Sequence to fold (570 residues):
Amino acid sequence: MNKFKDDISIVLCGEAGQGIQTVERILTHVLKLSGFNVFATKEYMSRIRGGSNSTEIRVSSKKVSSLAQRIDILIPLSKSAIEHVKRRISPYTIIIGEKENIPEGFPVEKYRVIDVAFSKMASDIGGRVYSNIIGAGVISGLFKVKEEILRDYLKQHFSKKSEDIIQRNIEAVKKGYEIAEDLLNTERIEFDLQRDPRIRDEILINGAEAVGLGALAGGCNFISSYPMSPSTGVLVFLSQQMNDFEVLAEQAEDEISAINMAIGAWYAGGRAMVTTSGGGFSLMIEGLSLAGMLETPVVIHLAQRPGPATGLPTRTEQADLDLALYAGHGEFPRIILAPGKLEDGFYLTQRAFNLADKYQVPVFVLTDQYFIDSYYNIPALEVDKTTIDSHIIKTDKNYQRYRLTENGISPRGIPGHGEGLVVVDSDEHDEEGHITEDLELRTQMVNKRLKKLESIKKEVLAPELIGNKNYKNLVIGWGSTYHVVKESLEGLKREDTSFLHFKQVYPLHPETERFLQKTEKAILVENNATAQLGKLIKLNTGLEIENKILKYNGLAFTVEEVRSNLEKYL
Fold:
């Protein structure tokens, strides 16, 4: 008998084109509708067909929001699947799949392998393409999801398909439920999971949707981007909202055009963003400097992936903090936000638009592939508590776009709103916006732009301290490491160890030094090779964090590996 506790990790693995992502979306939704907490994330190769892709779905009685190393149930849908995830398979893993997908030499006697002829059943229904839906039916049946919930969701999901295809998918679901019933009876698989009916009313979103919703809440009415994984999900999401939210989505011919369009939109009074990844942002850097000189707001969503160059285009990494921090020629201020929770993706992106508008600077929302592609259920977002703060003024005849002010923020007008002429220039300029080579004025203008940082620092978001305020050890992380570090520490149950998470990484909060000075041992967790946040902390505080847990193979941290690495230091 296999009796699982209240947290089960399911992995489906197959080739690109086998619909692994479709199954992920279906299962997360129907399990949530059945009252279970769910988390899902995917890892996939950069190819249209072939290779090996997998998705992990955690089903739990409690809130769960991070990647686990272990696999409790594995459904291999291709011959390469088991080899692809073999490091995560343990003697406790139940492998449900057909014999043809068990590789030669695999020690089946050491594992619990249940032969299910997915391919033959799918072919009888109408083609091997239905194997994934049979798998979805098996998982739903094992968790005793009401069959009508899955059937109704499939009808909605495939509503644009023909009635014949919908019926074949429903037939595949029925076959999956029959297999599950047989497994529950003959294999004696039991789950100790508690349902919570309140979960049905929660929302299930991924990181791309959270960022996109935050942009809408921030008043975004224009997005211009060139598709680049993993950032494209935000562009697609906002494109789907064009009619309901009066947002204009433009797929530009390249990233240079995209950022220049966004700058032009802000100049005209719009609220614009671009969404891109490392290589695409590299092309935007001249435009970034243009925004710095024009003092034009712009919001940049930078979804990180491993580089340099094309790197691993579908994998994850936190290696572009330095890029966002130092990109652009010349010296000008910027703000960098890095959401850790999906809720942060919403609220920080919304905040980014207000900050850009207020300070007339570029604002980055720095995510990564793991964050963008992860799903889990959360309570409803408090949209009513967000505001769209516009700082546009009505100009008069004596209007000066770059008037020297005490705090460095000049009044921002837009063409046609008032009597004034709104002049901007990419060359150094005088207060009216006309080109100048007055060297004394040049110094004044540089100082004016940099002076904004003093005001920005007054409303920097404080890092979140999770755990005992009287800590002995302090774990430090930023961005998408939030949940995995938090869950790892919960498992260790160390009252003397707390977690400091940064969701604004520039400017750093002035209390950063105080947090570090209190600890006997600091441990840094980052998804990069050079501890980029650690370097920024040292630059600002003079304190070096010697203990580092770094990962940069293209995969996200798992709870187990963070926990085991922390144990070595603690």
